[in-house]
Specification:
The structure holds 2 protein chains of 2 kinds.
Chain A (H helix, E strand, L loop, with lengths): L1 H48 L3 H5 L10 H26 L3 H5 L3 H5 L5 H33 L6 H28 L5 H18 L19 H5 L6 H24 L5
Helix pairs in contact in A: 1-3, 1-6, 3-6, 3-7, 3-8, 6-7, 6-10, 7-10
Chain B lengths: L2 E12 L2 E12 L3 E5 L6 H8 L7 E6 L2 E2 L4 H6 L1 E4 L11 H12 L4 H11 L12 H13 L5 E5 L7 H16 L3 E6 L2 H7 L2 E6 L2 E4 L7 H9 L1
Parallel strand pairs in B: 3-8, 3-9, 6-7, 7-8
Antiparallel strand pairs in B: 1-2, 1-4, 4-5, 9-10
Helix pairs in contact in B: 4-5
Amino acid sequence: MKSIFVREIRLNLKTVIIWSLSVGLIGLACILLYQNMQGDIEEMADAFSNMGAFSDAFGMSTLSIATLGGYFATEVGTVHGLGGGMFAAIIAIGILSKEEEGHSGEFLLSLPVSRTKVVMAKGLSVVLSIVFFTVVCALFYMAGFKALNEEIPMKEFMTFMGMNLLMNIEVAAVCFGISAISGKNKMGMGLGLALIFYVYDLIGRVVPDLKDSLFIGPYSYANASTIFSGKETDAAAVTVAVIITIAAVISAFVIYDKRDLAS
Amino acid sequence: MNNVIEISHLTKSYGKNRGVIDVSLKVEEGDIFGFIGPNGAGKSTTIRSMLGFLKFKEGSIKILGMDSVKDREKILREVGYMPSEAWFYNTMKVSEVIKYAADVRGIDCSREAEMLCERLKVDKNKRIKELSLGNRKKVSIVCAMQHKPKLFIFDEPTGGLDPLMQRTFFELIEEYVSKGTTCLLSTHVLSEVNKYCRNAAIMREGRLTMLESSQIDDDTFLKFYED
């Protein structure tokens, strides 16, 4: 199992590094831009907070982008949320199905290792990749605050990173389950799912009828503007996330163990 | 003689499509067993059921005295399998694939792998994506043999191999068999069955028939395919 885990980490290393650096650097650049925009940002903050549904969707009605905390939540929060969700989907959606698509499944499963151990090793490699991504991005964002000599709102920042880690794991778990069913790499479906989850949350914050159902989506508890405006984390949303994650992972184990392997 | 393979009334279907029907087969220790039949007859389905790639509901398979479903991991420690297509991970080097197979088995096979690579003229520094089918098959042979298994399962192993390599391949099989290994050889090549196999069976439309002798003439062999 260890060999499979190590091989998966090596195989995905380039993707993980590219995504971590890309999202981390974009976030850092956004933070550093704050200094250049500081002169005009007061006016912008007023304008952005009075744009009705648009302001609600991006959290600018509750937070002022004139403060670095508010600016981080609205700008970097969007970049990290969207980037993280897409990364999690990409890394998980093909992790099991690529063996059949690349016809290497017969080689792997003719070795003395159970399907359960294969799923376990690959699942752990996905989790480690997501944790690595989160840590690298967090370091970039912290470096941004440091470069501007601004104090990091540590409680909100850690909650934001932690909730996004959970959200990424939830998205990855759903994609992992799909990967166990399919013999083909469904990259498009994975990316589409991440975007649908994001858009669902965005629309849910604008359309009053959807507000009560927001907690179903993974972006509901990971929303930066909610976290940085000091609101309590929605326990129902986190509970749903944990249930979906566990159900998706168990499904992946059961389905992959029971089904015929394509040649 | 112990039976290394014991298949009893195996039936496997793919939805409404036929796979294999009521297949029973015994292969004794030390045998080189020829497994012949037209394309789509069910040879690969039988082999893939033996290795646990396919799940079946009817019948049972025992390999080396162990149940193929319950003891799959233990069985695979003693089996060397070579699939007909020999696919690996494209970006890996040959040496990495061979070592990876040994690492997953948790054993050091470096000495045996070295010997096999030398005899089969395997270039270990090339990447898998650079290899022809024949060269991928040679890597597959190394992976199937390096841990000195008790049972070889080869699915159309010689397609893509040049005549010299085919001869080396069968020399290797005979060497391992002389030390106690058993070999199940699925093939379309009559000369391989006649020359190397001690017993044989034919699969047609999902059903298996044991042959009285592995020495078959051309006309009889082709008749199996025509019928």
